[in-house]
Each structure stands twice: as C-alpha cells, then as structure tokens.
Specification:
single chain, mainly alpha, 1 helix, 47 residues, 0% strand
C-alpha cells in the first residue's frame, strides 16, 4: 500500500504537502472500494 500512496518515494515535497497527500490518497482508495462494493465487483477481474 505504501507504493500506492507514494509513501516510500516521497514524490510530494515537504511535510505539509505529505500531510495533505496521504489522507487524499487514502480517501481515494476507500471511495474505489465503496464503488466496487456497491457494484458488487470486489475484484478488478470480475465482469
């Protein structure tokens, strides 16, 4: 998960930017999971 949130590479400069970047990425991951759940598609490979 660290790779998806860019936590290992620190591509976003500065602690303040990271403090904004990380929660936004987590929110995005949760929204994708919620959408998949509502569509009853828990895996990307499901039709």
């Amino acid at each position: 998960m660290h790779e998806h949130l860019a936590l290992n590479t620190h591509e976003v400069g500065g602690l303040r930017n990271m403090a904004v970047h990380v929660p936004l990425c987590i929110i995005a991951v949760l929204l994708v999971a919620l959408a998949a759940s509502r569509l009853k598609r828990v895996r990307k490979s499901d039709p």
